[in-house]
């Protein structure tokens, strides 16, 4: 029979609540590092010049028209095979994900352009544009990235 068994403590100067708080904080930091740090690499585009061109265009009415106009303004690629996904945002904004299955660069398998744009009932303005691509060398199952396709 044991008399007065000693309890094992983490540290005599640290309470259980302090340990729980530190452990919870570290768990949240690890969770954020895993899920925020695992996104696709993208290249941000300078949109100031394109927005100047866009500010004079009142004929572009739909997000698809905007994405096609951006693509045609940037590339001379009449053979482009474009697909669009539209994701409504807040404050008259929409996220447009455009994938070109026949990019200009023959070493690329596909190119993805993600743009957030807002419409003020008369014209569009692009807020942000990010690009990335898949290389032919990595095949269809390859990841989206920004590495050079050689």
Percent in helix: 25-40%
How much strand content do the residues show?
Answer: 25-35%
CATH structural fold name of the domain at 43-138? Nuclear Transport Factor 2, Chain: A
- The total count of strands amounts to 5
Strand order of the largest sheet: 1-5-4-3-2
Number of helices: 3
Morphology: flat
Q: What is the average of the pLDDT values? A: 84
* Distance separating the two termini: 75 Å
Give the CATH architecture of the domain at 43-138: Roll
Lay out the secondary structure.
Elements: H1 16-36, E1 43-44, H2 48-54, H3 63-74, E2 82-88, E3 93-100, E4 108-119, E5 124-135
Antiparallel strand pairs: 1-5, 2-3, 3-4, 4-5
General description of the model:
- There is one protein chain.
- The protein has 150 residues and is of the alpha+beta class.
- The protein has a domain at 43-138: Nuclear Transport Factor 2, Chain: A (Roll), CATH 3.10.450.630.
- It has helices at residues 16-36, 48-54, 63-74; strands at residues 43-44, 82-88, 93-100, 108-119, 124-135.
- Strands 1-5-4-3-2 form a five-stranded antiparallel beta sheet, covered by helices on one side.
- Strand 4 (108-119) and strand 5 (124-135) form a beta hairpin.
- The N and C termini lie far apart (75 Å).
